[in-house]
Amino acid sequence: MKIKTGIGQDSHTFDNESNKPLILGGIEFDHPHGLKGNSDADVILHSITNAISSVTGKNILGDKADELCQQGVTDSVEYLKLALKDLNDWQIEHIAISIECLTPKISPKIEQLKSNIANLSSIKIGDIGITATTGEGLSSFGKGNGIQVLTIITVSRKSAS
What is the pLDDT of residues 78-134, one digit of tens each? Predict the structure, then answer.
C-alpha cells in the first residue's frame, strides 16, 4: 500500500459590507457576516480542496474555480468535487482540520461539519478530526477579523501486484 499526505490552507476576512451568509464546511452558520471572496468563501472546503490538490498536483482553486465563479458557480462544494475526481484511485483515509477564529463558535457544529464533510468525501465520520482555536487572539483570525483553516489529508492506494 502506498500512502500520501497533503496539506491545505485557506483564509478569508469577514465581509462586513454585505449580507452574504457565512458558509463553513457546506453548513450555514448564524453570524452577521459572511466571508469575502468571489465564491461563498467556504474556507473549510477550500482548505480541503487545497489539501487534495497538494496530493494530486492539480490546482483547483485559482484558474478552475475562478472560471466557475465567472459562470455563476459559487458553491465551494463544486470545487471540492473537482478535486475529489482528481484523486482517481487514491482513497481518503483521514482528514484533519484545524480552524482558527474568534467567531463564530465552531464547537457546537463540529458533529454537523464532520457529517457533511464525510458525506461529501465518501468517508466515515470517524475518519475526520476537527479542532478549533482562537489562538489566544495572537493573529487577526483570533482577533475576529476572519477565519483561517489548515487541513491535512491522508490518502492511500493499493500497490499494483
Answer: 999 999 999 999 999 999 999 999 999 999 999 999 999 999 999 999 999 999 999
Number of structural domains the chain divides into? 1
C-alpha cell at 158: 493499493
With contact defined as beta carbons under 8 Å apart, do 59 and 10 qualify?
no
Q: How many whole angstroms separate alpha carbon 103 and alpha carbon 135? A: 12
Beta strands at 146-157 and 91-100: parallel, antiparallel or unpaired: antiparallel
Task: Name the residue range of residue 110's domain.
Answer: 2-157
What is the residue type of 44? I
Reduced to 3 states, what is the DSSP secondary structure of residue 42? Answer: coil
- Contacts of residues 132-138 at CB distance under 8 Å and 24 or more positions apart, as own/partner, are 132/98, 132/99, 132/100, 132/101, 132/105, 132/106, 132/107, 133/98, 133/99, 133/100, 134/100, 134/101, 134/102, 135/100, 137/102
Cell representation of residue 76: 465551494
The CATH number of whichever domain residue 82 belongs to comes to: 3.30.1330.50
What are residue 10's DSSP bridge partners? 149
